Amino acid sequence: MASVNYFKMYINVGGRKVYYEQAGSGTPLLLLHGWSASVEVFRRLFSMLAKNRTVRAVDFPGFGLSEPPPSHWGTAEYSGLVKNLMDEWGCGKTDLLAHSFGARVALKFSHAHPDSVNRLVLTGAAGIRSKKRISGGKRFLQRAAKTASVFGTPGRWVKEKIYRRIGSADYAAAGDMRPVLVRVVNEDLSPILPDIHHETLLIWGENDSETPLEDGRKMKNGLPNSRMEVIKGAGHYAFMDAPDIFYNLVKTFLRLPG
User: Fold this and answer.
1) Which of 106, 193, 228, 234 has CB atoms 3.0–4.6 Å from 241's, for a disulfide?
2) Tens digits of per-residue pLDDT, 47-73?
3) d(Cα 204, Cα 230) in Å, to the nearest integer?
4) Which pTM was predicted?
């Protein structure tokens, strides 16, 4: 990285060891990663942004190098962590760039602490709870899992097998973080969107299968001061699929020089 003031460090927040990285100088910008990811996912984008900004990227508790949360956190608790971090850093009003699950946290944080946020860049943002049609076979398996849970240890084993069959890859890989995943994916942030008035750029991959383009359009309609850009051919990780296009969109929106 070209920046000389590049740091990798831990900070103690509420008794939890939280890992973050920092580089660059100037107006602060905080990067928030998605589910099952870490600061590593932003490596290239981080380097590009740190040429003009003080960039921080944090591993959420339970991910990367940070300790797990002390309980089954939801977006409110993760939002509280971001507030505590910003207070520790003393960085004042901050721009946020957040992906997927991180966007859930960014939206919750912006709603709870509007004076701490300048502008928002949200990509592949989760938070819209889509009503998806459930097939008869899947519905049967869901009922079977619910019934199996009353039969003690054998029932829990059967329930786990069923959930692995019908659940998402994230659920199957979540391990001890499954209760957190279940909690956050069932939070619908649609009701708070009209109250978030920060200038917001939504960047979506045309082929995003995790948070479909339809969700992005719903989010745009809900956020009163937002606009949306769609990157052709990109998927859920648009900033990795089309890094230069993504960076140029962010550079223009955040009014970066060069």
Assistant:
1) 234
2) 999 999 999 999 999 999 999 999 999
3) 5
4) 0.85
